[in-house]
Specification:
Blueprint: E1 25-30, H1 37-47, E2 51-55, H2 64-67, E3 70-81, E4 84-85, H3 95-99, E5 105-108, E6 113-116, H4 126-130, E7 136-137, E8 140-151, E9 154-161, H5 168-186, E10 190-197, H6 201-207, E11 212-217, H7 221-236, E12 241-246, H8 252-264, E13 268-273, H9 278-285, H10 289-292, H11 295-312
Parallel strand pairs: 1-10, 1-11, 2-9, 2-10, 11-12, 12-13
Antiparallel strand pairs: 3-8, 4-7, 5-6, 8-9
Helix pairs in contact: 1-11, 5-6, 7-8
Length: about 325
Amino acid sequence: MSGRDSLSTSLPIAGAQAMHARVPELVVISGKGGTGKTSVVASFAELAHDVVVADCDVDAADLHLVLAPEILESHLFVSGHEAVIRQADCDSSGTCKAVCRFDAVMEIERPRGFVIDPLACEGCGVCVELCPSRAIDFPERTCGEWFLSTTRMGPLVHARLGIAAENSGKLVSIVRNEARNAAAANGSSMILVDGPPGIGCPVIAAVTGAAGVLVVTEPTVSGAHDMERVLELAAHFQIPAAVCVNRWDINPEGAESIEARARNHGAAIVGRIRYDAVVTRAQVAGRAVVELGGGAADDIRTVWDHVQRWMEG
């Protein structure tokens, strides 16, 4: 099979410490959700021929819906701790409930005692230390999974964060590191990252050390505001930034205003993508927009060409 159909046999197993030069990483982000970021990444993955794709939007990963990965490796993501009361050893003193500042300890009648709500427990360990009967265990918390997969567009590293789980920034770092290992093993020229929206911890973990970030925005008031916030974040970490306006034709004046604001922040303008019903059809079909063709597909191809030249410059 070709390199676009399967992973190279030289792909390292999880946790392998590959010694390699840093492969450039392009992180596609947005100041808010719903701007079309993932659709752009999926099309870029189709247009590129030697990239590793990493889905770092671990809180709401959906790139797999388009790339249809075949999972090769699956690994638990363990981070932090959670308190668990051993009912047989509990003396029902209520100390745990009294000292818990997160209301995670609940009293039960049958059998009389206390239990800890795992969704509310912050893993601080205070109840463990102060329990007079030493009846509280403190195991590591399983927060999700991460995967190494093959797709029709090449290698994909992706993850799934558990319900109400935290430490998504740490999981993002794991996904990026494994993507680097895969890129080194396959001789890939670039790592293409689908980043989280916003400016929080997961975004910082996704963009730190990247060669460049592409901000996908839309011509709305909130789109302009959130774009500026994420451009300020990129500037803080001294990461070159480019901007693409999606669905620009629903508000041409707004698109021009956004591009002017982006230039004021020192960002490059790499193109516009029109509103096109083919985008929805592609999502329903589980395909990249460029696989179906149409006006938006042509726009994305142009944006990709501009992004490549911008990255090389």
